[in-house]
Amino acid sequence: MRISKLVSLLCFSLLLGSAPMTSTQAQLFQPEENEVINPVRDVNQLIYRGKRADALALAEKEIENNPKNVQLRFIRGVILSDLKRNKEAKEAFEELIREYPEIAEPYNNLAVLYAGEGNLGRAKELLEQALSNNAKSFTTYNNLGDVYLALAAQSYGEALKLSPKSKNTKTKLETIRELISK
């Protein structure tokens, strides 16, 4: 399902604009005298290089130093999700939602996790909650549309079990499956 790919896409979108590390930066992140320390950039560069465990360790260290860094806390949740540590990722996103209900991204990522587990009802609730809290974004609406499509596919699938000869329902289900696969 397209929704299950959103975590990876979101992580990738966070990396856009991140350049590969130079040899100077790669020296255990020891900044030159004039270099600005930027933990978010450093974590993103580790992710870009495929070093998610190192990125998580650095993010957690930096969050200890600055627990109000919302961006790093969000990225930590994304990394946990990428590492298939979904319980911890959910907790990270839920905490951000409690503290910052107006930010759409934690709702979206948490909804993606639930949708990936097949819990479309919870995913739908989260996305609708985001919209009601004015945490509106293109991604929220897009994810909600994907969840509605998946719910419709489930409903049509159940209807076909009751009436397998219904051509109209078969056509609807095929159309939705085609949309979901894109």
From TrEMBL:
The keyword Zinc does not apply. Keywords: Signal, TPR repeat. SUPFAM superfamilies: TPR-like. TPR repeats lie at residues 104-137. Pfam families: TPR_16, TPR_8. Gene3D superfamilies: Tetratricopeptide repeat domain (1.25.40.10). It comes from the Bacteria. InterPro entries: TPR-like_helical_dom_sf, TPR_rpt. Residues 1-26 form the signal peptide. This is Uncharacterized protein. It comes from Turicimonas muris. The lineage of its organism: Bacteria, Pseudomonadati, Pseudomonadota, Betaproteobacteria, Burkholderiales.
